[in-house]
User: Fold these one by one.
Assistant:
Number 1:
Amino acid sequence: MKLLLKGGRVIDPSQNIDTITDILIQDGKISMMKKDIPLPESDSGNDLKIFDLKDKIIAPGLIDMHTHLREPGFEYKETIRTGSEAAVAGGFTSIACMANTDPVNDNRSVTEFIHKQARLAAMANVYPIAALSKGQDGKILTEFGDLKNAGAVAFSDDGNPVADSGLMRHALEYAYSFDMPVISHCEDTGLSSGGLMHEGFISTQLGLQGIPGIAEDIMVIRDINLAGFTRTRVHIAHVSTAGSVQAVREARSAGINVTAETAPHYFTLTDEALKGFSTNFKMYPPLRGADDVEAIKEGLRDGTIDTIASDHAPHSSVEKDVEFEYAANGITGLETSLPLSLKLVHDGILTINQLIEKMSINPSNILKIPKGSLKTGSDADITVIDMNKIWTVDTDKFRSKGRNCPFNGWELKGKAVMTIVGGDVRYADSEL
Amino acid sequence: MNLSRKDMLGIIDLSREEIDFILDTAESFKEISTRKIKKVPTLRGKTVITLFFEASTRTRTSFEIAAKRLSADTINISASSSSVVKGETLIDTARNLESMNPDIIIIRHSAAGAAHILAGLLEQSIINAGDGAHEHPTQALLDMLTIREKKGTMEGLKIAIVGDIAHSRVARSNIYGLTKMGADVAICGPAMMIPRDIDQMGVSVYYNMEDAIKDADVVMMLRMQLERQKRDLFPSLREYANHFSLNRDNIKLAKNDVIVMHPGPINRGVEITPEIADGPYSVILEQVTNGVAVRMALLYLLSGGKK
């Protein structure tokens, strides 16, 4: 089986390529990239599929390094199959999934189970992130070596912060010795506990207990200090505050090895959205103020924030169709992440090249996975993007089981129109 | 004029004209409660449900009396404090009630926004009888009626609200209402009970009671909302009473004709001393009387009544 992608604008930041060219895919790999690859003679063409991708952008397969696939344990919210179907529909060829399942992914058997389910689903590449501590309870480290051998790509107690600084220090040191990243969910629970939304004028108006921005900032600064002291590295998950952006920026310029991600909702929405008490705007970290949103955009623009991850967190109506204070945190994101991020390009905050870099080679470098590039011989993971396609978000059409999306009904500009994983077309818009 | 809205969820979106109109209507209903036969047929055939997920004596009794004096049929439902505990969701409860075709549902709930869920879902008129620390519109209306009766107007009055502002829905609804009506509102309480950026609501903030009540026309005392505080916010009730209690010494700082208000229940000896609660400045029980009139007015107006 061969695929020939003709006439698209190929943007591959890993090789500094931005040109109109053809790509030939053979045996699941990128076999040739050059202008006007000749069509084979008709008799040999029966196993060749040709796609005319004029006016489309051909990018290395996008990577979402922060998702929740809910399996095992919460299959009514999402499964590895439905989650990875949502991934390819949203343009992601690779996703990493967090460990807060039931049982927690804190041992080899759960990591292997995730790999097996992902193989059976045969949609996106799924990279398990193992728990940092057993049961994610912040007390005893998991077996990093065994988990790495089983196929985990990072360690994180995401969902729970690591409150014990000593444990975090040991996690950073031990993970670094295996060349593995630690992903930190930064939250000082002494400041955040009981909180339901960003602390500010809107929380005061609504009478909802606030979560101050410093609940995040303080832990970001702690983890940066730990990474600096131990001469290791740390990745900050879902940055939502101006204070965090500034802390990462300063640490980076001081030579500390820190990387950071944000999620589309943190540069798209503010806490104003909470008026009306819709639980689809409830998440952790919470939607912040307008100043924070501007700082996140600036952090993306100047490179402080390395990657955009969806923090895809599907829930069922059982968790969301309740009083605001009882509702679960989190929103679905895989099928809206790229289009919301493309708005940064349309608004002139990022170039399309910078956006693709943040959604392909950067997360690949953070997780140290062999993805995010269209180099000849690499896996044929490709995302085809139509920058200008106008479409309307309709949660009823989601592949994800999660309908908890605050963007339902939004008209967005641009989306993935084809997703190729390992040389196999896993998603294509009907027009293709 | 009539009140062209389906629900009464909060004071935040009421206009000054609407507030005046509701208070005028309430004033005209007050007389009914002084008659020998305290009943008019205005809402005969209407069904009013009170759905209380939080304990309440005063507010619920007040709503029930208001509805009965207008000849409505009333049903009282006490539900456990959270749907999580109860097993049935608020939405399911609401749908079940809707199926029995009531006309007005009055809801009190510990979660902010609970009344909004019902209002968005049901055709019936919803009255918010208190949602978490968010709003308690009928309390603010009865407070405004009381102030207007005593002072003639709210315009230009200095009104101090003292206590646990952060957890108080009464404070929020009153701040919205009183600032709309032209009062000069000062809020005061221990620093950890003053919510962030509240000055943006157009109030001045004090941490010292003497400053807050100086030259006040109205002093409104609130109790500590211990049940809504997620952790121990304050060292002790003794410390609180030492610094944030209205007593016979500090009340001298207010105007000579000050009125003292409290939404109840009062904690004697904590935020207010007995001699103040029972003293000549206190209008606390008149507030309760006015509560019935305000609630009669709202039930009437939300049922399509015209003045």
Number 2:
Amino acid sequence: MRRAYIFPADTPVAEKRRAWFRESGVELLPWPGTAAAGEVQAVLLAGPVRCSNGQFVHPEGVWRRFLAKNHPAARLIQIGLRHDLAGPNYMHWFDPPADFGVFWQAAQSVTDMELPPPIGFTTLAALWKKFWDGHDKGGFFYYFSWAKLPVLAALDNVEESPEEWLSQKNFLESEAVPQRFQNCRHRWAHYKPYWEAAPFAGELAALERELTQLHLDTTTMTDSAATRQQLSELKKHLQATESTLETLHSYFTT
Amino acid sequence: MSTEHNTRVMIVVWRWIDANKIGVSQTDWQDGVWRSSNGNALVRLDLREQTGRADFLLDLITKNFSDCEVALFLHQNHPHNFEESERIDIQNQLNKAQIKARPIFFYGGDEPIYFSHNPLGILGINGDFPTIKIDGTNVIQSDFIEDPSKKRINQKHFDFVWDFYWYGRRNRILELSETLRIRFFDYLKTRNPVGAFLRQETETKLGDKLLSFTLTEPDEEAPAIEYDMRPYLTYFKYKKQEDYSSVAESMSKVQQRVKTLLNSTAVDKDAETEMDTVYREITALYVSLPEYTQ
């Protein structure tokens, strides 16, 4: 029995329809997340996806990049009610093919397929770009970079000259580092509902946990040791955040 | 377009570079008022995140603009970070006060309110009014500001931005079609008569939205105001010189189709056929509508 995942995972599927898939030798399962998915053979994507903020988004491009990198032989099959999108990788939900097994065979692999242009709603990649770049120096990347660099510089300086902890504390305050971290979290909170449409919700949740640790409290920097300890901890979280961001960022950009 | 309407006021809460960063107890907001030739007003506020700002805005509108039509533009990004709960709260309070006002989100720099994406936009890049932009080898000069000393703004820009955001319903239609699609997916599990099946959905208040969509008579109350297409049809009427009659006809046809679906007792394959038809027609309607009426 082959296995096909359906996304969003809570897409309602009648038992009769599940039985129809089984007759074609395919078990239809809700998308379980990247960690539990194992080898992905096919994903049925019902887009555009409605996120918890009520907004719709087209995530197909991000799914294709994710699958192409991690499961290049997989089929990405869009499902819906559009008649004008008929093609080897689109299945009309009320007018399914006679035999899904034959349809599966004819579907192109994720590395070969072409996605139809998204209609109406914005894409997940476009939203990531807004989150990342913003406008008028208001992007996550700007705030993250300009918070990270002073922290790393201050830590280097405190490690080299512990007696200068106070000037480093003043430097971090003058650079508005706490506010920059806060701006990072604000931007994340604003865009967070959209990431529900991505395949890697677990990884994004882990990233969010790291982001909550990006917090600089200069009032507790009362001596050299306390300053060094807080900055060292922060450096670890910054590195973990950066590492996860690098991986995820690649799925949102061409 | 007809000029017989109440005074129109656009309140834009944004990071204005030279507007006062006001507190919720301040009264000097008048400094940020600019007017167009027919007396419409643009009020510039920079109201950062703080407790009581929704009350401040409501107070401002009810005390000064209660007999006007008010488009309240709320910047969703840093440093204002307006949230949906605030917008809904403000909308509900304004409805209660029977003020014709609509809180509208904007963000991201690429909406028509921004000059960078629309020659008739009213916002520049860095918290200022639009000035110039480079489009390839062309330098485009904005004529939004007519007389800085008198705080006079261009009526043409005002009208475009107003029409676009005030009457815009196109995206609501698309949202409605996709909300229907998601509901339709559920149909095979229930196999109830399709009209009742749609009206019973409570999570997204689909029944209210569909009912609002079908309204055509002026005195009928819309339970989901954003899906009420009557302002859109009025807009088409104003725009008759551009011949939107065929679009208005399509709209009326789809409204009737949705009304029929809401009362349909069809089940199983017949219900699927009806749902399929409505989805196809409503998405086709979306495509046919002018893009700028988002």
Number 3:
Amino acid sequence: MSKEQLKNLETQFEARIARDEKIEPKDWMPEKYRKTHIRQMSQHAHSEIVGMLPESNWITRAPSLRRKVALLAKVQDEAGHGLYLYSATETLGISREELYNQLHTGAAKYSSIFNYPTVTWADMGAIGWLVDGAAIINQVPLCNTSYGPYARAMVRVCKEESFHQRQGYEIMMKLANGTMEQKDLAQDALNRWWWPSLMMLGPTDAESIHTEQSMKWKLKRKSNDDLRQQFIDQTVPQAELIGLTIPDPDLKWNDERGSYDYGEIDWEEFWQVVKGNGPCNRERMKARVGAWEEGEWVRDAAMAHAEKKQERKQKQVV
Amino acid sequence: MKENLYNYILGIADNSLILGQRIGELCGHGPSLETDIACTNISLDLLGQVRSYFQYAAKIAGDERTEDDIAMLRKERDYKNVLLVEQPNSNFAYTIGRQFLFDVYHLTFLAELQKSTDLTLSAIANKCIKEVSYHERFSSDWVKRLGDGTVESKEKMQEAINDLWTYTDELFHQTKADKAMVLESVGVDVTKLKGDYYKRVKDLLEEATLKIPESKWFQKGGKEGVHTEHLGYLLSDLQYMQRTYPNMEW
């Protein structure tokens, strides 16, 4: 293809996006578009899968049958999200095996929030309320992103996430209205998850390397700082409603901006966790790699069995 | 209180409770995403069934006790599940073997329980049987895949079946409550399910190119509350919150 032809294709492609047309798997796309989408979509899929771990940590110890069943359903939803996000990523010409390999070798990232430990039951509430809450803020705009399979997957993901968020908030509400001990559990969980949840919305705009291009492709609609502000403004009244205190002494309503001012985020902690030095990075990777390696003989058996069945079928035909 | 009916319900529900709890341990750690989802789903079904049974049992008890009290605040000797369902997830072959050996029983049991003169039990059975027929299909398919897969998977599947076989006979033992409920046409006469059970199990094992274990010596005791050492640890997890934070709502 000549340089001119390529330029032409690119111009047409950008025009399609500008017209809000969806790009589909078989359409021509610039290599960078493909790579960027593989990176972001697989990172999203990995986050769903790794994100199962901190919550599955409490399945066997959930305090009531109702909570146990709801938690199982929630973690199962996340596995489901992982499944169709991997499938959507595969439409860009990469296999699930390759994607797993990127996760297991550390080449691909997942959301850093899942490197924090779930130490009490209240963390199930805090994760649903705050982590899923922040995730929704990130993800709702993606329902209109330019890549068709991703946009469609996100419609379903967002519906389920918003249910999870309400469920998490309901856990917190129950604790906050419970005994003193339960209220302490809730406040302690909020104290530990608040700042990591703010960090989850990504580095400040000045340090975010992918923003500009991603905005153009509608992979991103608002900057990290705008999303963070939206999350804070939405969450503070929810905390107040159930009598919990946001652990930020600098948090203050700003009449002029019509938003909350908030304190300094510890970005050093954020980058350390991204680099692999969070409290649970090693455990999470060990669990994922361990499940994959221990499961190899099972996957091999399934393949071998399917081949045998196929052979038998062919013999019957002959 | 109708004590026999109460104990009868617990006998049924404890199997689902303990098995649901066991499979729940695997969530997030399955050999593939698809099997992870399926196992979580089975756990979810079983624990959903448990809620129906225990809510009914709590109603029969007619005092303050709730489904959670029944599920999480009994002593180890008061759990009446069969030994089979409390066996650990030693590897995926054990998980599948345990599931298969229980599902085949569970399915035939529920088919009979649907005929119960107790309308609540028959309605619960009617709802559960749809879920359990899926469980049985899932576990049977995996026994076939692992049995007739690779040399390694065959070895592992055979080992699991051999080890778990000793717990199958207990499924057909009757407690005092079982016998009383059979007399009232409320309960299922499990002794009559044995023939069909072993036929179905053996047919499938043969199809999976596995050997039928020859051992004629079987373990028992679960239905009377005498368990293997594995149960205590499972209960420590199951009961942790209710014991640590007593008398609270969640």
Number 4:
Amino acid sequence: MIGANPASNHPIAFRWITKGREQKGSKLIVADPWFTQSAAMADLYVPLRPGTDTAFLNGIMNYAIQNNLFHREYVVAYTNASYIVHPDFKIEDGLFSGFLESGKYDTSTWQYTGEKDPTLQHPNCVFQILKRHLSRYDIKTVSEITGAPADVYEEVCKLYCSTGKPDRVGNAIYCMGLTQHTHGTQNVRALAMLQLLLGNVGLPGGGVNAERGESNVQGACDIGVLFHVLPGYNPVPSAKAHPTWAAYREKTTPSTGYWVNRPKFLVSMLKAWYGEHATGENDFCYDFLPKTAADHSHVSTFQDMTKGVVKGMFAWGQNPVVGGPSAVQAREAMKNLEWLVCVDLFETETAAFWKAPGADPAKIATEVFLLPAACSYEKEGSITNSGRWIQWRWQAVEPPGEARSDLWIADRLFKAIRKEYQENGGVFPDPILKMKWDYGEAECDVVKVALEINGYEVATGAPVQSFTKLADDGSTACGDWLYSGYYNDVHNPPCKRRDNVDPSGLACFHRWAFSWPANRRILYNRCSVDPSGRPWHPERALFRWNGTGWVKNDVPDFNAKLPPVETADKAFIMLPEGQARLFAPGVKDGPVPEHYEPVESPVGNRMSGQQHNPLAVLWKGSIFDKYAPAESADFPYVATTFRLPEHYQTGGVTRNQPYLVELAPEMFVMISKTLAEKLGLKSGDWVRVATARSEFKAKVAVSSLVRPLTVQGRKIEMVCIPWHWGFQGLATGAIGNDLTPAAGDPNTRIPEYKAFLCNVHKV
Amino acid sequence: MGQYGVLVDITKCIGCRGCQVACKNWNDLPATKTTFTASRTNPPQMNFNNVTLVNFHTIEKGDKVQWRAVKMQCFHCLEPICFEACFVHAYKKTPEGAVVYFNPEICTGCRYCQLACPFLNIQLKWDEVFSRVRKCDMCYDRLVRGLKPACVATCPTGALKFGERDALLKEARERIAKNPDKYVDHIFGEKEVGGTSWLYISDVPFEELGFRTDVMHESIPKYTWKYISKAPILAVGLPILFAAFYVYTKRRAENEDGGH
Amino acid sequence: MFSMKKLSRRDFLKSVGLGAAGLTALDAFGGRSAEALLLKKRTEMPPWKLQYAEETPTICCYCGVGCGIIIHTRDGKVIGCQGDPDHPINQGALCPKGQAITDVSFVVAENERRHSMYERPRVRNPRRLTKVLYRAPFATEWEEKSWDWALSEIAKRVKATRDATFERTDADGVTVNRTQAISLLGSATVNTEENYLMQKMMRGIGAVHIDHCARL
């Protein structure tokens, strides 16, 4: 468990961890900068400095390889360890070959040659490259970087690598502590690679498990509420790469792997959106889809407000004024908006940004519409959890007053916009007027929306049973191919199933709700058996080849009509190579993880001359360009954000709930006893916490749960900041994210909330 | 069939406080106003609207830290002193094990029960002179319908376990025997004040978690009776005193009612 | 056909509690001991909070674990909730946020006076938004507005902004059909069907700034 604290933030997940420990004798290792509630329950707790997870995980991988504790048969069969890489591929001083002056990589030397060496001996095979690269991460070095005591760290390596035995399985749980860094993608990759090396992916009880923070963040991603993907993870067309349907089709459709079906998915989506207007002759209205100009991610959106590019915003059930990085600057940016529409349950800080402390409403021209929404049990619909279960929620009560469901609001709003264009014309109204939007004349019927997402045959309107029935000739329509099958029966839709039987005892629960894709509960499950079809462990047999056919306990993630030998090298069907990537040529900042310091770090990078990720996204020249230099004297302490069990994210909802406010009423920051002594502080004192962005006042909690770490001979103190408070609601307090930097990961642009520099003064 | 009880395994509690909210939600208790506390225990003490409370404790031993959360509520003594202290029989020890304040109509609000409870687990309103009592009743309304108390039903990790007290006691002994290095060899509630329906096991000595371990191991009523029987005047006198007080308070209550 | 799924009380009791046998056993010794008679004096059984209550299953609106919750309602009012005992993930358990989900709509009134056990002291959460609110440029206060007014005004803003900024082609002559002036920050807590409509509408008008907090 690294960068996650389920005891606080996902308590019911901890139910199963407790059960595993009691019933199976599992051991729990927790790595976290401070002694969290999860750490308090751990068999082995190891502290590490915020932002050093890559080094920490690389060290465990190195330990596994050096001590031959990895699962060799699994690695050879199911990963690209044997692939031979371009002879000119190099890693020098923290840079991979092909680094361009533009600050990006030319990845031509990162490609496979097409040859393989299953003995893993070839000096340029993935395994040997990895082995050489990781050998620099020995216990002593990792301990010096991370501050993890060497003896405890070695114990962690030893204990976790014991899951590399074929009949053992280790589960890796991570959360925002791993992702919210300028090298967040590499952190997660390092964890995934460790799991692959130890043969822990695709098995019951194994995997790389993200604890999703919100009830439907999975669903919102699946359904394409992101600037870079459409529903079902089809890329959003960009003007440069995909000017035409032919170009899109060619560039996004590989020749092998399951994505060969992409045209079927996209055409079906276009049919669902443009109905009879989408035909083969007009490329199914591909031209109607807006093409991206550049990066349109969260921080870029706010930056574009300051430039006057973004003029109107919908903040629909989100509270970026508390949740986004550099929130002070974000509020400043919002003053440039001409109009803002907020849809929420309560009056959030975002809706009220014009009356934030220090803001002068008389100078803010933004028009704000605040629309009252229904809460989760005042309406009907489905949400998707961390395990990809799509579960239906029924309505228990009516919403208060004139509050309406988001479905109703979206439907009415589209109809109002369409009416404007119908009555008054306008610039290129076709994409609006030709959009298929028929969910009911007066009231929007959620079932009609669900059926569209599920997909249907255009000729008959009958729901498609699964995505395997989708076609690229316009005969099927489907809003999101991944969700095909979740509502394929109007009378008894799979997402409403409530039968909790589990005949295999492997916690698959196939008759409870529906799990995408195809009701498969464990992804990559071909890996749960060896290449010949024998389960790695007889008690955890998802499948078994009985000589003539497969015995199945889950929906196979491989072609089960074929004998095992034919699917052994295609265990990862979504990848063109069919095998998992210990070396990933497509990751922007390097095919293997390398340790970089956070953008704001108290120490220099011990591993190379690259202080931080050379590709880190820094919004230079914008109002977000506020970063403290490494080893800053003004900001000597490491700061990290965290969450409490009693509040949810920005607190937009929970700070209006009396029961939760009673439990956690006030904002605070947490520091160690040693720092408190140095600054003359005791619990309850007011402090001023400052970063390069801003500063705020909060009460301080002096706690023995936070302790300084020794890093490269220096004691590094830490300030832990919850971010649930704001200036609205029943309980108010400083906004934690006023302090956080808008420095982004190059692959995802997630901000570096978890490691930055600050200073603390007594007020 | 024996009495029911709850076994609290402090080593399994993650301190989420689901129980604290579940108790309030089931019993329709309103939220109270609180402020910052360094330990995060909130409200800092039990009160009229919080009859169960999770107390956080940080225990430092050299380099090692332990962080433990302890759920507190009425322990439901086998021979409850509140029952004995109440001269109007507002309390009852039910056959299921719960100590229930079942007769609020005749309660005089004298606070004897509150003063008598060695664990301070009975709550009254401090801003009312003759307040009614509120205490954990083990969700007696659920209990008699075959449901676990709300706090136990909601506990994510099974730190709270509901069952027959004898069976729980046996299980507690087994858990300690299986893991003698982990647990302290003490089941709180097995003997304290003659035994309680709520039992606790822990890996940290109970004194360090805010438990009163200095209470006698014999039931307080029994002990009191031993003492009182040696002083016949008290044995006769106390009830008379209580009765006089009772008459006085009752009249007063009636007068108050009449005034409405 | 798509009405709420109700659980029978019996199903519910069966899985939360001690099972049917426990139920009978407990009922049986209700009148046995002398002590129990004391209880009888007042009432046969303590009053039941969920008398005539409806039970509606929902999934928790907070973290991504996806726990099942049963919402108890009576006369259109939420009177409590409980972890869904049939749910394979939480098996009846809930954390404090899940338990407090009732607070989003109805809270326990501070005045605890109640006329009968049947009546629960719950009132609408007074902080919930119940009306459309509008803040005019430079205004210091909200104004209450109607839905019709708000939807048509927002539509006008969308149209004006879109029409003023719409790009049919970019500098390279590529058909782009977009506006860079309208942004949607969607939600990780609303239903999938709702998010689907939001992004479909926004892509329909040509917006490219579409994101939500998964990236935060």
